[in-house]
Structures are given as structure tokens and as C-alpha cells.
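Residues determine shape. Take a concrete instance:
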Amino acid sequence: MDEGKKRKEITGWLYLDPRSKLLILVLFSVVVMIDVVDGPAYIVRAIMTFVPVFLVCLEGKLHIGARFTVLFIAASVLQNYAQRHFGGALGMLVLFLCYMVTQFAPTMITVWYCISTTKINEFMAAMNRMHAPQGLSISIAVMMRFFPTLAEEYRSIRDAMKMRGIQFGGGKVTKMVAYRLIPLLFSSVNIGDELSAAAVTRGLGAPVKRTNVCDIGFHACDFLIVSVMSILTIFYVWLSLQSGVKLL
């Protein structure tokens, strides 16, 4: 089996180097620091927002891309409607929730894309190529494994509680909190300990130069996606500064 087929099996239709994903995440971090609600800059931001959605859809997660699209459009429409018709505490609450979705959801889906499509050995190889400190590399690698494992543990706890009839409604909210959150908290501690032990077992943090057998590198798709995102980010910042918007 050639290398192209291996990459396709690992990451779907589009293979991106981990460093390209990190750069895209950094660019989105710059974008969320600028608050724009209308004008040409908002149009550019909306276009950038759906770039990670497009990447997620290429990974075969069409349902996640569709959910995010519906959520983002609904939040944007509701935010504009609430600004004109809602008032008081309810209006402030609706505006705050819609603002959180439109402002930070694009970064969150980008983080999800980076974590779900990057293997730990690929990430560590990329960090070694960038000569990043081992403390930073190991911390991020453990975090990348922690949240997916925690989500899987929560699904197991949720299924177990459903079998026992403990769920929303029926006057069992207190039991639901006790029987779901408390096991999840203890599971979080155990997961952290296990991941730390696994990192030590694999020699992460050892004072030697590590080797890696995975093949990473920049290709045409990396240059295309990174170039598009960089141009859109520069254009977005320029339009925002022209309209007098300041960084958050």
C-alpha cells in the first residue's frame, strides 16, 4: 500500500500537516480577538468560519458540520433580532449566548478538528520539527488525549444511568447530578493519572533526542489552506482597523 493510501485511511480526503493545523488555530485566535458584528469584515469572518466546517465535512463528519452550520446561522439571526426587539435581562441573556456562539464557536470547532484528526505521534513529530520545549509538547499531547477520553467516559456513564432510569425529568434531577457528575469527576482524576503514567512509560520527557516513524511534511493542500486562511486573516484585520474596531 503506497503512502497516499495510508494517509487517506488515517485522515480522510484531505491530509494536513499538524503544523498547518496549529497555524490555522493561531489565525482563528487572532480573529476572535476582534469583535465585528457587521460590514465587510463580518462577511470575511463568516467565510473564514466555514473553512473548518469544510475541513470537518471532508473528514466524513457531515452531521457535525451541518449542526454547526445550523447553530451558527440561528445564533446570528437571533442576535440581530434580539438587538432590535428584546430588552431587559432576557435580551441581555439572549445576546450574551448568541455572542458566545458566533464569537467563539468557530475556534472551538477548529480545536475539535485539530484534536480529532491528529495522532499523538504526528503531533510530537511536528513539535520536534519546530524545536518546541518538551514540557509544552507533552502538556498539549496529554490534553489532546484527555478530552476525547473524558468524553468517551461520560458517554459510558450516561448509558449506564439511562439503563437505570436516571435522566432528566421524572423528579430525578438530583440523582442525575450525583450519579453522573461525581463518577465523571473521579474518572477525570484517574484518566489524568493514567495518561501521565503512559507518557512516562513511552519515555516522554527523557533527556534524549526522540525519533519518530510517522511521515509528516507540507504538501500542496497545506500551502493552499494556509495561504487562504492567512490572506483572509490579513484582509479581515485590515478591514476591521479601517472601520475603527479595536482588539478585545
The first helix runs from residue 3 to 11. Residues 168 and 174 are 9 Å apart (CA to CA).
